[in-house]
C-alpha cells in the first residue's frame, strides 16, 4: 500500500520524548445538593511520541472521563477540578476555549465506542470527511476530496471514491468504525485517543480495526491512547500500560514490566483472573473477591483496600502515591509486591 | 433506604411545590363535587328580585347572582360536580377500552387482528371530535352518560396506542422470556408482568386527560349540545353568560377562571406524577 | 463423571429456523431467510457445551428456538430421549422448569418494578410452593449459593450493580433446581475482576448439582476455561465441533483458525504478536442470499473453485471432531 507523503518529521523526533502528560488531573461530578463524585482523582501518566499507551480499567474506573478531560469535553454536572494536562509542554487546561477548538481534531482527535452513532446518518461519508478537513483548514473541496481518499486508503479502504458517495447506514459497524478512524486522521493529528473502539464489535472485526490502527500508526507515527477493559487488547497493542481503579492511578509502566512483574495487588489480581487463550488454568480462576466500590461514597485511603489481600494499616487512611518500583515502572501502593508472573505455577504459560 | 415508604412518599410530595398546589386544588374540587348539595349556600330556584348581583358585594351571595337571580356560587358548585363526574368517568372508560384494545392488538402483532384494530383507532383519531359529538348527541339524548361515552370515544385511541406499544416492547423483553421459562402462563404474564408496567405509565396521563375532558365537556355544553338545563355544568353557566359579555363581563369570567384553575391543578399533578412514577427518572434525579 | 449414551440430557437433531422474506404491497413471501441451518448436538449431564460465534451468526436465534420462545422450522429436540413435540402438556411443563436461562442483559431479564425478593419468589410460586415460609427458606439457600446478602432482597434491579444482578439472576435459576442452564454471554457485560467470580461460581454449581450448561459466548479464552465441547457457528451453521482440547490444539476449519488468531491475549502481547485476521475483507453474507457452495467461502483465505461449486459435507476428522470444510483433512 502506498500512502502519499505524510508530515513525517515527527517520526524522526527523539525516541522517548513525551508528547502528552497529565499531572494530578482531577475531574469531579456534582451529585445532589452538596455531594461530589471524584471520578478522576490525581491521575498521572505520560504518552511517549509515536507510542501506544493503553489505559485499562473497569467500568466506573474513570478511564473515559480521563480521556474526555484531556480534550476538555466534560459535560455538566462534571467539571475539571484541577491538575494539568501538558500537551507539547503547554498546559491545555489553561488555554482559551477558542484555541482548544483548534487543538481538537487538528492535533488531538478521538474515536468512540459506538460507531453506529458517531457518524451523522444524514450526510454522505464524503461530505463528512471533507467537512472534517475543511473545518480546520479551509482549502476547497477538490483538495479535501483528495485528502479524504488518501486517508481512507490509510485505514485500508481502497475504493474511497465510491465509498464517499454513500451514507453510513449502508455499511456494517466495523466498516463505519474504520471510516470514523479515517475521519479522525484526516488532519494528521499528533495524538489519537481511542475510547473502547472495539468493545461493541466481534472478535474478528476487533482484530481488523486494531490492525488498521496499527497500520495508521506505523505509517504516520501518531501517538495513540487506547482505552480498554480487555487486558489482551492492551497487551498486544500498547507500548505502555496505565491501570486505573476507582478514578485513581494504580500502576503505570512499559508493557513488558507490567505484564511480567506487576507490583500492584489489583494488577496482579487482574492478570491472575483473566482466563487464558493458550491454556486451561487449574480448575478455578483466581478471582478478586468483593465488588468495586461505590464511587459516591469512597472510603478514605486506597480504594482497593477492601478487596486487597495485602492490606495494611496505612492503606485505609492514606491514598498511596505513584512511586517508582524500578526504572519507568510506577506503582501506587503502600506495599508494592515482588511478584513474578513466570514463577506463578498456575500461570505456567508465560 | 430503610425509611417507612409512606414517610418517604410524603417527603417527596412536599418537596414538590407544583404537586402540592395541584393536590390542594384537585382535592378542593373533589370535595365540592362530592358534597355540593351539602355545601351549597342556596337552592337553585330563581329569584327575579335579585337579578345580576355583582360579586364580592353581599356576604350571602359572594359571587353574585345570574340573570334570573340564582346564586352563582351554588351553580358553580353543582357545575363542578357535573364536570368532574363526566370527565372522570369518560377517562376511566377510555382507559378501559384502550387497555383492552391495546393489549389484544399488541399481543396479536404482527397479524390481521392487530392491523384491523389499529386501522380502527386511526379512523377514530382522524374523525373530528366536535362533528362526532354533534352527530352522536343529536341521535341520543345528551345526558351525563351519553356525554361521558362520547368524550371517551375521542380519547380511547390514545390509550390503545400507548398500551399497544408498551405491550409490544415488553413481549419481546428478556424478563417476559424469563417468566415463560419459569412456567408462567399467558394470564399471569398479562396481569403480573405486562400489566404492572401499564398502570404506572397511564397514571400520569389521567390528570392531564381529565383536564382535557373537563374542557371538552364545557365546550359541548357551551355550544348547547352538551348538558341541558336544568342540569348545571360549567359550560352551560358560560353559555348563559354569553348575552352579558359586554355589560357584565364578570359573569362569564367567574366560570372561566374556575375552569383554568381546575385544569392547571390537574396538569400540575400529571407532570409531577410522570417523574415520580418512572423508576429510571427517579434514579437520575437521585444520582 | 458419568459418560455414555444415557448421560445425554438433551439433544437436538438438525434444527433449523427460517423467516419468510416478504416483499411488495401485499407482503408476498419472496424467499426464506435461513438463520439456523441444521444444527445438531448432544448435551451431557454435568458437562458444558459452548456455542461460539460472532454477532449475526444466529446463536441467539438458536437459543430462542431451543427455549421454545420461537418455533423451529425443522428438526426435533429430545429431552431425556423423549421427543418434546409428542410430550404431554404436563411433561412439557416439567421440562421447562428443568431448563433455565441466564441472560446477557441482566437488567433486562428482571421486571423493572419487581423487587429482588418478588423476582426470586416468582419461580417458586410457579412451581407450586404454597407456603411463604418455605419459599423464603429456599430463597435464603440460593442466595447463599451465589453469595448475595439477603439485604438486597428489598432492592429493585436497577439498584444493584452488574455483578450483583448477575448473581441474583443465577439465584433465580437455581431456585427451581434446574438440570440444564443456558447461559447467553453470562459474563461479557461484567467487569474483568468480577468475571472470574461468576465463572468460578458456575463451575462450582456444576460440580455440586451435575448441571449441564450450554454456554453461548464469543470470548474464546473464557470458553477454554469452562467448556468440555465447543461448537463454532458461522452464518447459522456449525462449521466445526470438537472436544475443547482439539479446538485449541488442532483447529481444522479456517474460520476457527481465524477466530483463534484474532482473539486478544496477554501472552500474544508478551511475544509481540500483532493483531492479524486471516479472513478476506468483507462482511457477513446476507442470510437471505447466501453464497453458493460453502457458506464461508466469501471470507475464506483458502477458498478454491471447488468451494463455490459444492457445499462441503460434515467430516469427522477424529472422534467427535466434525468439520464442515473440503480441506479439513489437510
Features:
heterotrimer; B: 287 residues; mainly alpha; MetI-like fold; 74% helix; disordered C terminus; C: 330 residues; alpha/beta; eight-stranded mixed sheet; four-stranded antiparallel sheet; 11 helices; 25% strand; globular; disordered N terminus
Set down the secondary structure blueprint.
The complex is a heterotrimer of chains A (350), B (287) and C (330).
Chain A lengths: L17 E14 L3 E14 L3 E5 L6 H8 L7 E10 L2 E2 L5 H7 L4 E4 L3 H4 L6 H12 L4 H14 L5 H4 L9 H13 L5 E5 L7 H18 L2 E6 L2 H7 L2 E6 L2 E7 H6 L4 H9 L49 E4 L2 E3 L19
Parallel strand pairs in A: 3-8, 3-9, 6-7, 7-8
Antiparallel strand pairs in A: 1-2, 1-4, 4-5, 9-10, 10-12, 11-12
Helix pairs in contact in A: 4-5, 4-7, 5-7, 7-8
Chain B lengths: L4 H10 L2 H23 L32 H37 L3 H15 L2 H11 L4 H28 L2 H8 L4 H17 L2 H18 L11 H8 L7 H29 L1 H8 L1
Chain C lengths: L7 E16 L4 E17 L3 E5 L6 H8 L7 E6 L2 E2 L5 H10 E4 L13 H11 L5 H15 L15 H13 L5 E5 L7 H18 L2 E6 L2 H7 L2 E6 L2 E7 H6 L4 H9 L3 H5 L34 H5 L5 E4 L2 E3 L7
Parallel strand pairs in C: 3-8, 3-9, 6-7, 7-8
Antiparallel strand pairs in C: 1-2, 1-4, 4-5, 9-10, 10-12, 11-12
Helix pairs in contact in C: 3-5, 4-5
Would you write up a description of this structure?
The complex is a heterotrimer of chains A (350), B (287) and C (330). Chain A has two domains: 229 residues, Rossmann fold (3-Layer(aba) Sandwich); 102 residues, no CATH class. In chain A, 29% of the residues lie in helices and 23% in strands. Chain A is built from eleven helices and twelve strands. The two termini of chain A are 35 Å apart. By secondary structure, chain B is mainly α. The longest helix of chain B is centred in the first third of the chain and has 37 residues. Chain B is globular. The C terminus of chain B is likely disordered. In chain C, α3 runs parallel beside α5 and α4 packs across α5. Chain C has a domain of 80 residues. Chain C contains eleven helices and twelve strands. Chain C is an alpha/beta fold and 330 residues long. The two termini of chain C are 34 Å apart. In chain C, a hairpin with a 2-residue loop joins β11 and β12. An eight-stranded mixed beta sheet of chain C has the order 6-7-8-3-9-10-12-11, with helices on both faces. Chain C has a four-stranded antiparallel beta sheet with strand order 2-1-4-5. Chain C is globular. Classes of the chains: A alpha/beta (350), B mainly alpha (287), C alpha/beta (330). Chains A and C meet through α8, α9, α10 and α11 of A and α5, α6, α7, α9 and α10 of C.
